Amino acid sequence: MLRQCCAGFGNLALLGLLSSLESAAGGAIAHPLAVRPPMFRPRARRVIFLFMHGGPSHVDTFDYKPALIRDSGKPLPFDKPRIQFAQTSNLRKSPWQFRPYGQSGAMISDLFPLVGARADDLCFLKSIHGTNEAHGGALLKLHTGSDTFVRPSMGSWISYGLGSENQNLPSFLTINPTLGHGGVGNWSSAFLPAVHQGTPIGGEVPVEKATINYLRDPDGDPARQRAQLDLLGEMNRQNLAQAGPDAALEARIESFELAFRMQTEAPETMSLSGESVATKKLYGLDDPRTASFARQCLLARRFSERGVRFVQVTHPYWDQHEDLTKEHARLASEVDRPIAGLLVDLKARGLLEDTLVIWGGEFGRTPTLQGKDGRDHNPHAFTMWMAGGGVKAGFSHGVTDDYGFYCVDEKVHVHDLHATVLALLGLDHEKLTHRHAGRDFRLTDVSGRVVTEIFA
Q1: For the chain, what is the largest distance between any 2 Cα atoms, rounded to a whole number of angstroms?
Q2: I need a surface site. Which of 92, 98, 252, 434 has the fewest CB within 10 A?
Q3: At residue 299, what are phi and psi to the nearest 5 degrees?
Q4: Which of 57, 65, 53 is nearest to 112 (CA)?
């Protein structure tokens, strides 16, 4: 009816709705980011995705392989994949020792001693597999479910399905996003309403200087801004009345309105000045090695506790075709303390139980050697872990072969991962659809199985 009347959601946004309003007739949602009820009882309300761009090596971090130690230097005793990103030689053991952690006894590499100390909070998925050997395709597959077509990202689907718990902030934020390997496609809303697109923070500047672009008006006069928006809104309403519904124009109107509202809350959220010295130290803001990623993780907590539905933080660049021993050690030292601090902080604040934390990259790496000290891309088996959000703590799901090259039991495809994340949020991946170009699309395309085995 709204579209027929040429009003649409854009016009409703111009009314200055600052909260979730529902129509008395039928409970229709009036605001595009209003909170939407889940389809069934959710285990989590929000997501923090810790994305390790480049592909960390699972056999050097969380997938312990004694046979790889035993047979290091020998040829792989079975066939390598038909399609490989590059050639590799014989088996190569991990340069790091693995040790048992916690009551669960999870075997974790010396690369992650502080995350290891949180082992009893973690749920490992050790049999993730995808379909693409290249970074660009693998990133798009992990973020959007497709490595061949433009599709909405996981964060956009979650925003579309559940809305935002804070109308003064975006529902989907991505901190320090990669601008390569799929670029904006990794946080795009594609054919979903544009209001569900991820809002980037940084990506081209050091994290300590990153902000939301154009957050502050140099004039600093809210009354003048409101008058300008009202005038612009009237002009756009006239346009809509003459030309009919226009999704792009309505999205632009809503972006202006959201930007206006964000001025009341985003600057304070972006500022860490109110955090205690102890909290900053917990995350690692006092150490130059960890300070950058610590800031990202602390911002993720601050935005999450204020109602942002999906926050992604990205740490590059785990792509060691050479210098794996040196570079994986450096990269892990930058993120181990901030990640552990985030888990401790969320748990202490009572947020971990309904916040789903996800860690992982776009693929793993081969157990075979590349060059003198490297490993190649491996989408056929890799490890991700989750914490909080209704998953089993101190639990491990899935098995790879003796060397970690292929998944062999309890396999979890990327579509299964997406279906599981949506289910933890109370969304049925088969019913969360959007009609576009004559068919109903969904995050999991025509696949996906919910891995209920990891549910607490």
Answers
A1: 74
A2: 252
A3: -65, -40
A4: 57
* Range(s) within the chain of domains with CATH label 3.40.720.10: 43-216+273-454
> Would you say residue 9 has pLDDT above 50?
no
Which helix H or strand E contains 101, and what residues bound it? strand 98-101
- Could you write out the three-class secondary structure of 306-352? CCCCEEEEEEECCCCCCCHHHHHHHHHHHHHHHHHHHHHHHHHCCCH
Residues 6+ apart with CB under 8 A from 303: 169, 173, 269, 311
pLDDT per position as a tens digit, 179-197:
889 999 999 999 999 899 9
**Contact (CB, 8 A) for 88 and 366:** yes
> Mean pLDDT, to the nearest integer, of 409-427?
98
Span 43-216+273-454 CATH architecture: 3-Layer(aba) Sandwich (3.40)
CA pair distance 433, 44, nearest whole angstrom: 20
What is the C-alpha to C-alpha distance for residues 189 and 433, in angstroms, rounded to an integer? 13
> Which region, left, alpha or beta, applies to residue 368 given φ > 0 means left and ψ of -120 to 50 means alpha?
beta
Separation between Cα atoms, residue 369 and residue 373, nearest integer Å: 7
Of 28-42, 88-102, 345-359, give the lowest mean pLDDT range: 28-42
Structure tokens at 49: 């995705």
Mean pLDDT computed over every residue of the chain = 90
- Span 60-119, pLDDT tens digits: 999 999 999 999 999 999 999 998 999 999 999 999 999 999 999 999 999 999 999 999
| Residue 100, both tokens | 């048992």
> Which of residues 7 and 438 earns the better pLDDT score?
438
